[in-house]
Amino acid sequence: MPIIVKRIIFYVCLILLWQGIVMLGIWPESMVPGPLAVVNEIYAGFADMTLVYDIVGSFKHLIIGLIISLIIGTLMGVLLATVKSADETLGSMILALQSVPSIVWVPLAIIWFGFTEASIIFVVIIGGTFVMAMNMRIGIKNVSPIFLKAARTMGSKGFDLFFKIIIPASIPHAVTGVRLAWAFSWRALMAAEMLSTGPGLGYTLSYASDFNNMALVIGIIIIIGVIGSVVDQLVFQRIENKVLKRWGMEN
Amino acid sequence: MSYLHIENVNKSFQRNTKRSEDTIQALQTINLSIHNGEFVSLLGTSGCGKSTLLSMIAGLSKPSSGSISLAGNEIKEPGPDKSVVFQEPALFPWMSVKENVTFPLRQKMNKKDQENIALHYLQMVQLSQFANQYPHELSGGMQQRVAIARALAMDANLLLMDEPFGALDEQTRTVMQDELEKIWMETQKTIVFVTHSIREAVKLSDRIMIMSARPGTIISDFKVDLKRPRQQKDLALLEEEIMAILKKEIDNVMKEELQYANHR
User: Subunit info (chain B) (predicted)?
Assistant: First the structure.
């Protein structure tokens, strides 16, 4: 059976189960809305464009933040991989920061930047930077010694060796870093937007919750999940697979 | 004055074990003179330090003591005056076959010349139609041939080869040996060739340096005076002679190993 068929059956069953639970009437619809109510809310949101503005707003924050975090993360990773003292000092801090959930930065961002888009972007940057840095570092550190030896026998050294061999050889790890940075940033973005003043999916989510619109809350959660997995599978996994294949690292 | 001159070279490695720090003597008092245009093999069992010696000639590592000089200049670092073919192809996977072969030429000439040279050597190893493929699309044997084309494209007078055909199947190996012999006769390069195959050494070399292990030393400087191109049938006699020398060596190593095992 093809995967797509399995998936369709799975989701149909899930929705039927959901509808069944709602029809049992244990909880009021204001707490557990049915699938139809959720679909209606999503439809209405797209019809009056509010959800479209939210998605556009969210992507704007994400893209700006992600790009900045990738640049900072790459530079940090290169620094950690090439300067031993930096690795021994800054490296330990980045490792610690990587384990701090992004939402922790939200109060700080609000105090520094107020309820502005800069706050959101700040949190997104923090979300993506460290994981990118760690992956870039591993990528550079794991360049196969045989590539370095071969390049040196062909007269490559210094900057040439670094930019022509070490950086390209670390691309597979860097791509994984980008993919993880996207995933981390996307989570951070939602956390930050929930405490912001829109537009953005996170903002609308917390707004809907304030007005007790559970159907919209669930609708937005679904949208966040769908966007997350679609971007991951259609964009990043494809790039990653291509790179791994080209670099001969496919299993 | 010989072209490649190796004088009293020792190489030892530190081995850190939990309790003590041992020094392993990998090579001991190596003296070797190689003339311009000579084809010399380093032959020995695994662990005799033949690859270590080659790596020092390449300038990738330094002797612990002694000196290695090329055309009168001490070898301090790797460089374009000596090209190396490793056991593994070591092609850069993000570059096409052609880009791999032109890599050592980048700073020396314009694009057009680079391409012509790359195609010339790719033709020599019969892979010109794969010029625009990427390494992962080629078999292991084809990749190794690209690596050989790349080393030849550098056009260094000294060609260092570290068991270059080790990973190839028997037929490809024989074809590549014939090919290398031909290339060597045409280009008059100096070749230092590491191998553990007696047949390969006899087939290709002017001189075979037979090495022993623990510590690695040269136990015999064996001249091969067969006319070229060499035929398989002429090789058998010399092979046996060398085998006899190596056999003693292998027995010694075995004995030593048994003694060590018994003393524990």
Answer: The complex is composed of two ATP-binding proteins (OpuCA), two transmembrane proteins (OpuCB and OpuCD) and a solute-binding protein (OpuCC).
ipTM: 0.85
* Domain, as residue range, for A88: 35-246
Does A171 reach chain B within 8 Å, measured CB to CB? yes
* B61 burial level (CB within 10 Å; 0-12, 13-18, 19+): middle
With an 8 Å Cβ cutoff, is A150 touching chain B?
yes
Count contacts between A and B (CB, < 8 Å): 58
For residue B165, give the nearest of B230, B88, B243 by alpha carbon.
B88
How is chain B split into domains, by residue range?
A: 4-81+195-263
* Cα–Cα distance, B60 to B78 (Å, whole number): 6
Answer whether CATH 3.30.2000.30 is correct for domain B4-81+195-263.
no
Task: Give the total number of structural domains in chain A.
Answer: 1
Query: Which residues on B lie below 8 Å from A245 (Cβ)?
Result: 136
* CATH at residue A117: 1.10.3720.10
From chain B, the residues in CB contact with A164 under 8 A are: 103
Q: Note whether A251 contacts B: Cβ–Cβ < 8 A.
A: no
Pairing of strands B39-43, B190-195: parallel
Please state, in angstroms and rounded to a whole number, the distance separating the CA atoms of residues B77 and B43. Answer: 25
A242 touches chain B (CB under 8 A): no
What is the per-residue pLDDT for B167?
A: 78
Contact: A149, B92; criterion CB under 8 Å: no
A17 assigned to some structural domain: no
**Is residue A20 in some structural domain?**
no
